[in-house]
Structures are given as structure tokens and as C-alpha cells.
Write a structure and sequence with these properties.
It contains four helices and no strands. The protein is mainly alpha-helical. The longest helix is centred in the C-terminal third of the chain and has 17 residues.
Length: about 90
């Protein structure tokens, strides 16, 4: 199953609404290795690097993701779904 499908099934969110506008990018934090906009692009490419990046596991980035997308994509929920998928894959 693609990352996009996993997120859609888990959250109802469709990352395809992302137009790569970069408006979701928050100020850099030490624990970030990629910006939020790049995380979404990795999802769209079905690149599993999205499941392993430090950005995904940062609680401060997770909180900053709330309301970050101007198009209404719930990046907080997307990140939680990615975390769950990463843990599921690690356990299998």
C-alpha cells in the first residue's frame, strides 16, 4: 500500500491536495532534517525515507504542524499516521 493510501485510510487526509507551495514550512529546528513540504513530497513519491527522517519524530515539529497548511491538509494527523506506519513496518 502506498504511503498516500496509508494516510488517507488512517486520517481521511489526501496529501494530493498539496501544491508544493511551501507555505507549510515552519522555522527550522535542530531536530529537523527535512522541511514539512519535503516530507509531503516524499509521501507523494511513496519514498519510505518519509518514515525514517528525524523531522517525523520531532514532537516540536509535530505541534508546529498543526494548522501549517493553508490548503487545509492536517499535517499533524499526517505525521501521526506516518509514525504509526513506521512502527508497524519496524515490528513486522
Amino acid at each position: 500500500m502506498s504511503l498516500r493510501s496509508v494516510i488517507r485510510k488512517s486520517t481521511g487526509q489526501d496529501v494530493y491536495v498539496c501544491h508544493a507551495c511551501n507555505d507549510c514550512d515552519i522555522p527550522p529546528r535542530d531536530e529537523m532534517d527535512i522541511p514539512l513540504s519535503s516530507l509531503v513530497q516524499l509521501i507523494l513519491l511513496n519514498d519510505e525515507e518519509a518514515l525514517q527522517c528525524r523531522t517525523l519524530w520531532s514532537d516540536s515539529v509535530l505541534e508546529a504542524a498543526r494548522g501549517a497548511c493553508k490548503r487545509g491538509l492536517d499535517l499533524h494527523a499526517v505525521m501521526l499516521a506516518l509514525r504509526d506506519e513506521s512502527l508497524r513496518k519496524a515490528g513486522s
